[in-house]
Amino acid sequence: MPRAFDITPLDATFGAVVTGVKLVDLDDAGWRELHSAWLDYALLVFPDQHLKRDQQIAFAKRFGPLEFEMVAISNVRADGTLRVEKDNDDVMKILKGNMGWHADSTYMPVQAKGAVFCAEVVPTIGGHTGFADMRAAYDALDDVRKEQVERLQARHSLHYSQSRLGHETKKSDGEYHGYGLHDGPVPLRPLVKTHPETGRKSLLIGRHAHAIPGMDGAQSEAFLQELIDFACQRPRIYHHAWAPGDAVLWDNRCLLHQATPWDMTQKRIMWHSRIAGDPASEAALPG
Known about the structure:
single chain, alpha+beta, Double-stranded beta-helix, seven-stranded mixed beta sheet, three-stranded antiparallel beta sheet
């Protein structure tokens, strides 16, 4: 039986471009094929979709309940004016924080399952989104390091990761209202997680991870940075150069992602719908 769409693998250990399909017209059989491809590739890129807000939300909901339906990731205010980079307001600080490799919602009690991300307005210089395959990163570790990381956990905190950039929430201007900008109890997560649907192991690291139990602060920071440096390199990374109308779907349970710098005198308007994780597999460890 012919496939409902065409898949072209990326030049990386993961990811594919999907063509020959309009997501708004995807029937149940086509969705099942797409879901299977998503589990295989972890990242699917859909050019020229131009999804409307309700269409993006409806597509994301096919993969499960949403952590949130939609939020703008943008240097443009709701009134259409451009944020000035030198003002370095709360939203600008979050945008710059997102340029570090991370997985979504690891600092929350339940980590996100995935996301649908769509481009409306893109700058002419920069503003790509990078993705990194933590399955292939785990596979590439030698046996000694695999045995070591299997035994370790780390705390995950947005307060920690933003504070490293000088984003002190006590001096916040109050524009960013996301979860996690607090200095309080934070989730503990293993450095190696097993995917609940594929059974593949992957590294769970990124900018929010810190404070490995049994290590002092400097040791933990150096160890985690070494893992990121090892994991986030070719052929385990892909940076997507956006065109208006592009949509991507990624598996947050096994990929890291990052924004990249752009000319912030130009507008960048992206729309993010986040798929909620299943507490049975994505909840933090006790303690």
